[in-house]
Description:
Chain A is mostly helical and about 575 residues long. Helices cover about 65% and strands about 0% of the residues of chain A. Chain A has a two-stranded antiparallel sheet with strand order 1-2.
Amino acid sequence: MAANMFRQCPDSGLFFHKSAESLMKAHAVFGVVYLLLGGFLGLLVALTRMPSLHILNAEDFYLALSIHGTAILIFWIIFFEMAVLYFASSTLLRSRPATPGIGWVGFLLMVIGSTLVMVAFFRGNSSVMFTSYVPMPAEPIFYLGLILFAVGALIGCFIFLATLVVAKQEKTYDGSIPLVTFGALTATIIAIFTIASGAVILIPTWLWSLGFISHIDPLMYRTVWWALGHSSQQINVAAHVSIWYAIAAIIFGAKPMSEKVSRTAFLLYILFLQLASAHHILADPGVSSTWKVFNTSYAMYLAVLASMVHGLTVPGCIEVAQRKKGFNNGLFEWLKKAPWANPVFSAMFISLIIFGFIGGITGVVMGTEQINLIIHNTIFVPGHFHATVAVGTTMAFMAITYFLIPVLFRRQLIWPNACKWQPYLFGGGMLILSLFLLGAGTLGVPRRHWDINFSDAALQFQFAGTAITMMGIAGLGGFLAAMGGALFCLIAVGSLVFGKRLDPGASLFSSFGFPMAASCYNIERPGKLGLAPVEQTGDGGIQAKGTFVLALVFLAAFVVYFFINAKYLSSIWPMG
Amino acid sequence: MSILPPSQKIWWKEPIHGIEMMWIIIALIWCLVLFAWMPYWHVYGKQNLSNESYKTAPEVFEGKANAMAKAHTVRTDPKSNIPVVHPPAGSDVYMLGRLWQWWPILELEKDKTYRLHLSSLDWQHGFSLQPTNINLQILPGYETVVTITPDQSGEFAVVCNEFCGVGHHTMLGKIYVK
Amino acid sequence: MQRNEHQESNQEEEPVPGMQQLLDNPFMLLFLGVLFPTVFYILWGIMEIISIPAVK
């Protein structure tokens, strides 16, 4: 007990517990490994879907696409999220993590599980895509790997909850948990449901692949699997919204406009966001319209409402903080004078804008029961989730990584100029990719398809020339994004290896998943975390007028885009 | 500061900013519009998803499609050897998906209503009618019945848009509307 | 500042509102967050699938 286990980062003032810090580093580093692998294969996928390049053969393309989807949507995201959970519990609450030893067991299971899945992929007999729809078979180790990975992640979730209990019992903080920790709690709750659903469907599917069960119902599989497949992306939403709040606080000292509103919005996520998985079943046979309408409307769009609230309050609290600093001219001086050259801010703000304007709007449009008819399984769908996951989540994680490299790893970022430009390169490339995939999808181009010119098919069909051109431009966007992603990995890894040491103890191996030199940890127990200072905001607070104007622009875009699609729907063959 | 505990121990009673409240109300109204739109379209819209489907077996479905093709084949597509079937206007028509073709080719009459039965004999497939852009998920063991009224004449392709193995991109079907 | 100190001393006696109690209780939230999707999405969905009729 007497051992000093904490250190305080002199730059940020945050306290890091030795075991929690090591777990954070290990998870984050593994996440970046999968980002690198998944991103590289994403580049190959993008260049293959560019009709003029078409670089991979069909078999390799389907393999690359399967790995790209799984490595990014599951492994990169969840490894990094585990790091976020340790940060939001142990570091933000100044608490020791509960049972770090078991945390390492969870980490090890995630590593073994994800490795097994990769082995199954690279053996070549498991190119079943991220979704692995039955009865298309994968090798048993593919399902086993996913199950082990899920168990590991579940352990991480329970340690997060246990750490909340420890912190409360040991009274490491005053009042309620910080909003960012509350957001992380939301992510954890969604993760627990997600992983449980995954177990419910993947364990029988694994037994089926071994021959112990003769039949898995494809519709049952799809319904339960999507409670894993889509909800896992809702973990991202909760996690990256928390990171937005965290960065607003770190960079601007911004205080949530209202704790009540932001937390209630997270509560709406907890209750309703996971029902959104029904999106994927809209064009399926058998499930009734009542179920579809209830679930896809997120139970009356309450989760959409929550996202719209976060979309206002995050930039809103930044605006209030900036105006207080004197950037009070006109509607947008606060935004113009924001630190656009600081990648922590720029990556976070690009994440917010593209997630909302493109990811959010297209998500709701394609989640509308009937409009899904003109969108289901077209390349519109990847267009949507590159805006949400590749920009929304991944860029939020990149933003917090730029913050954590000096604070957690105690290394200075290398290449300051590249750091400045990286978010724009990645975000810009992804923006082009998303927009043109959405366009091509609207013209009917299928997703997960090697050759939309059908050169090997017995029958012939020609997509509109515009669709082919759009796929070409999307490929170009994908190339730019991949360069941006590669630059991020180079900066992150380069900084860990070559970055200037901010602490003498921050040597390569001691910062690589292992704690820093023992001498760095010189605090037995940090002082109790007090309440945030009360701010005198004057009459009703400084109003976030600029943000409100932005929000109205967003709403106008939303309404217009929705009705354009409704009009398009009314032009297809009458059916019912 | 969002990374610190709220500044008040009891924060539930803090007032909400005027702008925040206004936005919540506007957003809620828009969400209600979106919600109401779906039931509205069920009643007044002409394009809806079918609620008619059955559990079936691949052999049963194949038998039905074969019977229709036997009775109404008008010619055979020379390149693919798939029969072109012209079923009576207004009848029940069948199309099956299998690795890697849509079978048979259908010839329909413009502005006539058909009950189109769809199922898969093996893995999951995606029925994507182009260029009109109608997209449905097709599962083995389930038969979907969609009532369709082709209101444009011409040649339409059925692209498979659910990944179904290494020949997925060659899976192309046809519907002619006269 | 004076006003705030005054508020704080008030808060010591004031009961915590029910909604805040809920939002401060991670395990209640976990229960609700698993209950809602399990009932509305999974169980209802499975019932729908089971009740699909067999073809004539």
